[in-house]
Design brief:
Length: 503
Amino acid sequence: MSTDYLKRILTSKVYDVAIESPLEPAPLLSRRISNTVLLKREDTQPVFSFKLRGAYNKMANMAPGARARGVIAASAGNHAQGVALSASRLGCRAVIVMPTTAPEVKVDAVRRLGGEVVLAGESFSEAYEHAKKLEKKEKLTFVHPFDDPDVIAGQGTVGMEILRQHPDEIEAIFVAVGGGGLIGGVAAYVKQLRPDIKIIGVQTEDSDAMLRSVRAGRRVQLTDVGLFADGTAVKLVGEETFRLARQYVDDFVVVDTDAICAAIKDVFQDTRSVLEPSGAMAVAAAKQYAAQHKLRGKTLVAIACGANMNFDRLRFVSDRAEVGEMREAVFAVTMPEQRGSFRRFCELVGERSVTEFNYRMADDGDRAHVFVGLQVSAPTEPGKIAAHFRKNGFDTLDLTHDEFAKTHLRHMVGGRSRQAANEVLYRFEFPERPGALMRFLNAMNPDWNISLFHYRNQGADYGQIVIGIQVPAGEKKQFRNFVTELGYPHWNETDNPAYKLFL
């Protein structure tokens, strides 16, 4: 099978539709992390993603009769566009099943390319199940997004190009992993010709099916997947891609949302291009890996695998990029409400740039609470700044890694309400679809009063909600059951010290 992949990749028909994407240096990022970072610009493909390589190679190698019946695919967006474009070039029908959470930019693109879009399910896995039913019903030919040798070979041409474009030393190639088609193809090619090059898979904290599977020695199915990096939101990896990952992938790096947002900004500063979250994962991982392994002077290749970004999601990316790059730290500071305290605190802040400052006098009138954001230049700085404030008499909480504080609190500072007795505070992620809030309200006990509500959605596939609800002491168990049965991701923030200070 291994030798077969070399032949399949070398004879792949991808260049009927795909370009040989450039391998470009990222000079600003390279200088900052003291390593040469090369970006494999798959975002420059006709559908702004690598996915058309595998889709076209599969369809071009189909028996004419199978292709003539029409094809069907399940995809969150990028594979869908690859199949739709390939179908238009090859003159056949294409039905694409996409999850209802797929970004609008991807749905519209598929329709423009002539694909018949069917929206079903909230994740790739649910869309896949629906597509398999339609396949049998309408006698269409299924084009799998990753678990097919022809698809894997098509994606493997990315690795072939990298070795041809940069025959010199490469420390590692970083590859975002969803179902595993891209990393399977790239690894199968590169490892047989250049076994010295490390292949590093990249996953998000909330969609790490391949990493869990490799560690377990068997395919592990996730119950839920995150939706921010929708292109890699896969609950179960492929059988063949899992086999290839176990055989060829050297290591995995897990990145979070803030690191991805920072990477999107890094690529924009170097190229003036905007990657989608999945497209920037490899860049985030290259930075993280270089820092962890203290690399200097090495060549790191990051596959920028897609750029199908909803424009309104940029609000979210911009807001989180500074934290992800550790350029912003946020703190809750308590100061005595006495003459000169405010000035003394500002003197401690010194020359640092202030990104946010919210001040609120406490109910007792003896203290004030300050929510402050400061620009920093190193990951170690927030702890040092907090210690500096405490040393000078100001009680301080470092909230730099507090999700509740970063997403909600900074926009809500205002103080507690004396009327909000028995208040519990919960943070939810509501799916961004009609009726999600009404489902919550209809399921809630009408005797419970909402005492605080804050909604925030900056272009992600879910809305960020924080809710204060007055629940009598004897009904706490009933409330916990309500929250569990609702099924939305949730976090109890009632004991969050920042909530106690500000809300």
